[in-house]
Amino acid sequence: MNKQELIGQVADHSGLTRGDAMKAVEAVFDVISAALKKGDEVRLVGFGTFSVSKRKASTGRNPRTGEPMTIKASSQPKFKAGKGLKDSVN
Fold first, then answer.
1. What is the pLDDT of residues 8-56, one digit of tens each?
2. DSSP class per residue in 25-60
3. pLDDT score for 87
4. What CATH number should be reported for the domain holding residue 68?
5. What is the torsional sign of CA 63, 69, 73, 74?
6. What pLDDT score was predicted for residue 24?
7. Angle at 24 between CA 23 and CA 29, to 5 degrees
8. How far apart are CA 36 and CA 76, in angstroms?
């Protein structure tokens, strides 16, 4: 399912117009992204938890030349599925 299909499903299930469903889906994505950007965690009980994981700087190798190179520290978004979501899939 892609984003447009998700918006269509939200519109069908909620009775919203497609435009309102698009605004709602976009708003949810924006709020989750903003919270993660601040370093906060988003917990949706029964669904899952969105969080940010810090990766330390490391040394790797350039695949073309084999020379060592530094890989910068970064933040990675993570999602851990909740019990309700796991149970609904199994």
1. 999 999 999 999 999 999 999 999 999 999 999 999 999 999 999 999 9
2. HHHHHHHHHHHHHTT--EEETTTEEEEEEEE--EEE
3. 93
4. 4.10.520.10
5. negative
6. 96
7. 95
8. 10
Report the residue count for the chain: 90
Q: Which residue has the tokens 């084999």?
A: 66
Residue among 4, 41, 48, 45 at smallest CA distance from 26: 4
Burial label, 3 (beta-carbon count in 10 A; 0-12, 13-18, 19+)? exposed
Question: Would you report the helix, strand and coil content of the chain in percent, each value rounded to 5?
Answer: 45, 30, 25
- Judge if 61 and 31 occupy the same domain: no
Q: Which domain holds residue 83?
A: 41-89
Are the C-beta atoms of 72 and 90 separated by less than 8 Å? no
Shared-domain flag, residues 7 and 22: yes
- Asked if 50 and 36 touch (Cβ cutoff 8 Å), the reply is yes
